[in-house]
Design goal:
41% of the residues lie in helices and 21% in strands. With 270 residues, the chain is an alpha/beta fold. Strand 8 and strand 9 form a beta hairpin. The radius of gyration is 17 Å and the shape is globular. Bound molecules: 3-hydroxy-5-(hydroxymethyl)-2-methylisonicotinaldehyde. The site of 3-hydroxy-5-(hydroxymethyl)-2-methylisonicotinaldehyde has 12 residues, from strand 1 and helix 7.
């Protein structure tokens, strides 16, 4: 019998991030993907690829969640970009209305297309209403700093401390990602499970961020959890899958590359 994974996230029109990446990752990992769209981000090629951001009406988000959850018995969900306090309210209510085996939250805090004032309200609502419902949360370096309230994160020890502080907000597991910005030769992620910290390291691939890496990692964790993996094995596998996708990255006309979710399976078949 096929396993199901559900994602509630934004659309990113180039295919390099957001729900497109989530559903591609689910398919690559052999789970049946179901998706609810929260907002539409369309980069603007005439304006430095700035983010044009349009939220989906809260009623329409609620309708999508109703359709998805009435059709399939979904118990593992990934939450990606939400974008506005109104969206956060409707998604938080829907998450709280049922039992989940896992709620994986990728705390996408800001989008370049939003006003800073609006972004602050959104960050606060995410911290107060969605993070406490998460079983797994996957902040990047910037998000880990904001959510932990730490002044700076410049070492693996700082990253582990941020993960511990974020766990105090409610999630059982915190995966804090150092990425290319954390100093050192390796891309380091830490997994805090409420008592122990596990450090996962892989050599950095270049020094530029690759778009879609965070979405891919959280989606791969979600898919593995849906198939019944334990958290430690889900995270370790997801890092391998994402690293393969970064190595096999795709270039477009944007100034940044994007992850190729098919690279892991390509390598197995080669
Ligand atoms: O990578 C973060 C992200 C997530 N979701 C959507 C996005 C982006 C970044 O652009 O547009 C919809």
């Amino acid at each position: 019998m096929v396993d199901f994974a559900y994602v509630i996230a934004g659309s990113e029109a180039t295919g390099g991030a957001g729900i497109q990446v989530d559903l591609k990752t689910f398919q690559e990992l052999g789970v049946y993907g179901v998706g609810t769209t929260t907002c539409i981000v369309s980069f603007d090629p005439k304006n430095g690829w700035a983010h044009r951001f349009v939220p989906v009406e809260p009623d329409v988000i609620a309708d999508q969640i109703e359709a998805a959850t009435a059709t399939h018995d979904l118990d593992v969900v990934k939450v990606g970009m939400l974008g506005t306090p109104a969206t956060i309210d409707v998604v938080a209510d829907a998450l709280a209305a049922r039992q989940w085996r896992h709620v994986v939250v990728d705390p996408v805090l800001i989008c370049k297309g939003q006003e800073p004032g609006a972004a602050l309200d959104t960050d606060t609502a995410l911290r107060e209403k969605v993070i406490p419902l998460a079983t797994v949360v996957t902040p990047n370096l910037f998000e880990a700093q904001i959510l932990s309230g730490m002044d700076e994160i410049t070492s693996v020890d700082d990253l582990a401390e941020a993960a511990r502080r974020i766990a105090d907000l409610g999630p059982k597991y915190v995966i804090a990602k150092g990425g290319v910005e954390l100093p050192g030769d390796d891309a380091v992620d830490v997994l805090f499970d409420g008592s122990d910290v596990t450090v996962l390291a892989a050599p950095k691939v270049g020094s530029e961020r690759v778009s879609g890496a965070g979405c891919t990692l959280a989606a791969a964790i979600t898919a593995e959890l849906a198939k019944g993996a334990e958290i430690g094995e889900a995270v370790a596998f997801a890092k391998e899958f994402t690293t393969a996708g970064i190595n096999g990255r795709v270039s477009g006309h944007t100034p940044f590359d994007t992850v190729w979710q098919g690279a892991f399976v390509d390598a197995l078949e080669a």
